[in-house]
Amino acid sequence: MNLIKPSDIANAATDIATFVDTSELADKDKQKILEMVRDFYADKNEHIIDQYLNMLAQRTLDKHFPQTGFEK
User: Fold this and answer.
1) I need a surface site. Which of 10, 44, 45, 71 has the fewest CB within 10 A?
2) Alpha-carbon dihedral angle through residues 51, 53, 57, 62, given to the nearest 10 degrees
3) What domain range includes position 47?
C-alpha cells in the first residue's frame, strides 16, 4: 500500500488545475494530456482521491476546451 500525504494530493490537484495556463505545449496537446490524466484516474478508481482527480481533470477540460457534442 502506498502512503499518500495531503501535500501530494494538493500538488496533483494544483498541477491539473493550472496545467493549461502553465504549459507551453500546443492547445491540442494540452487537451490530449488532460484527457489521458482524466482517463487514468477514471480507470484506476481505487480511492476517493482518484474520483476527485478524475473530476478535476474533467472540469478543467470543460473550462478550457468546451465541447458542444457535435465534435463526435
Assistant:
1) 71
2) 50
3) 26-65
Domains: count for the chain: 1
Q: Taking residues 43-68, what's their average pLDDT?
A: 95
The rounded mean pLDDT for the chain is: 93
Q: Which residues, 6 or more positions from 17, have their beta carbon under 8 angstroms from its beta carbon?
A: 56, 60
47 located within any domain: yes
pTM given for the model? 0.88
Q: What SS3 state is found at 67?
A: coil
Can you tell me the mean pLDDT for 24-41? 97
> Measured between alpha carbons, how far is 48 from 53 in angstroms, rounded to an integer?
9
